[in-house]
Design a protein that fits this description.
Elements (H helix, E strand, L loop, with lengths): L37 H7 L8 E5 L6 E2 L9 E3 L2 E2 L23 H5 E5 L2 H9 L9 E3 L10 H4 L1 H12 L3 E5 L8 H9 L3 E6 L5 H7 L6 H13 L4 E4 L11 H11 L3 E3 L9 H12 L4 H10 L19 H17 L26
Parallel strand pairs: 1-5, 3-6, 6-7, 7-8, 8-9, 9-10
Antiparallel strand pairs: 2-3, 4-5
Helix pairs in contact: 3-5, 8-9, 9-12
InterPro entries: Elp3/MiaA/NifB-like_rSAM, MJ0683-like, rSAM, rSAM_sf
Protein name: PA0069 family radical SAM protein
Organism: Polaromonas aquatica
Length: 362
Amino acid sequence: MSDTIIPIHAIKGRGTATRIAHRFEKDARHAYDDGWRTLEENAAGEAPRLATEVFFEDARSAISSNDSPDIFFDYSLNPYRGCEHGCVYCYARPTHSYLNLSPGLDFETKIIAKRNIAEVLRRDLAKPRYVPRLLNIGSNTDCYQPVERELRLTRGVIEVLQQVRHPFSIITKSAGIERDLDLLAPMARDRLAAVYVTITTLDGDLARRMEPRAASPQRRLRTIRTMAEHGVPVGVSVAPQIPFVNDDMEQVLEAAWEAGARSAFYTVIRLPWELAPIFRQWLDLHYPLRAARIMARIQEMRGGKDYDSNFASRMKGDGLWADLIRQRFEKTCHRLGFNRERVELDLSQFRPAASPGQAYLF
């Protein structure tokens, strides 16, 4: 029997096409023709759709500290592991390896929900040694991915933060954040909340291939407008920038400004660990004729490698191409008026909550 490798096909509604082995696996597996016409049937038909599975875990802590000098917040909180949005470029994909799951399809089809996150957060904030600092929700995986509609874990977290007057920011690609405007708007008026919406491109076809289950670019613009109209400070993330893929940064910034965003930031694509072969596979499926050129430019920004973890350059890259992206961003922001006023959240309003079972004095 011939070990003929079955060709890979894109899966509708998913960013990746395979369950690529994670870096801790000892064995690598490849599909092959078993002699029962599998090869011909796979080549002729569309790959089957995959259902999303949700698994629950009890978190031991809610807040993670950040000491990276290139990240603007000190604490992060993520109610979910994995993300159904399926963004092919997501730098969080390799974290699924620690769960013995694939950073490929498992990352976007096997979602881990921290069902006790609100209770644990309340306990963490009640600790005498806790010092409030800038907290971001959703920095790793989207806190408003589809499962949030039913589980409402993110809303539970915001309710706790509202009760203790703890400031926070949220970054998302989802219009689902509009559900929680009843909490966000009053907190924003008190300088306790800010929102950032990621718009990678205005090209709907590209977005469907690159971010298959996230809100459409036009829907995200509507979310920016809604936030601004309700007085919530809102910014736009035009990240990641990928050479020869999403080349409409200026148009995205213009549309976001028109919708009401007043701050903006960007990063260039970074491909740590298993993300590099995942992204290469995506390029081969969707952009085979320019895949080599795209990877050459990415490596040019990373000192000839797929990824460079140097804090000085990992977010923005290095070299001529990275400098060109930086100039485009800065000149467009200056022309439009982005980032002229910094959003300052007020840490002084924090009032520690009582631990569960402990009576409140007031």
